[in-house]
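Dissemination and training. As part of the outreach component of the grant, students in the summer workshop were shown how a complex can be specified as a set of sequence lines and then modelled as a single object. The example used during the hands-on session is reproduced here so that future cohorts can follow it. Participants entered these lines:
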Amino acid sequence: AQKVTQAQTEISVVEKEDVTLDCVYETRDTTYYLFWYKQPPSGELVFLIRRNSFDEQNEISGRYSWNFQKSTSSFNFTITASQVVDSAVYFCALSDSNYQLIWGAGTKLIIKP
Amino acid sequence: ETGVTQTPRHLVMGMTNKKSLKCEQHLGHNAMYWYKQSAKKPLELMFVYNFKEQTENNSVPSRFSPECPNSSHLFLHLHTLQPEDSALYLCASSQERVGETQYFGPGTRLLVL
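and obtained this result:
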């Protein structure tokens, strides 16, 4: 069965600290896609990254970086030098041969000034 | 970027009312989705349309009725709702269904009294 686990329900850090959001997934497919979305208090889900199962290269985009490790079925997300505007709920999701997005429960990130 | 728009942004309705939610995408996509997001529950996929044809209906009660007149517009018709239907309703679109990134609208916050 497909499943996405975000074990951290809520994380609170002080501004400028680095923070890592964990995502662990389960799937039997060899071809699948992983996503991260950000949901600020306004409610809109903002797409951050999409990674396919054949591309294990880590990615960096400004202060954001993603660590994809198939050996541990993890796709973790790190924010470097966090800012108050990073406060949001972050969702990890998996898309496989069933074509649906399987969502994690989300991690609420609070950045305190 | 406002590639996906939703109206209204907020809606309060009684249990006997009939209302409709509207979603429009300006991204040239072929697939559109309705999701329900309730407090403290995972994101729930309700309906999927691919090339205007409904391809998924995840056991949604008949008081929710989707309509997709063309690949750019998606409606969710509501009638005789229950208070437990109060939630954030999110519309999304993607190029096609297989592993493609879904882009979301800002959502409609619905309160059923």
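The radius of gyration of chain A is 14 Å. Students were then asked to discuss how this feature might be tested experimentally.
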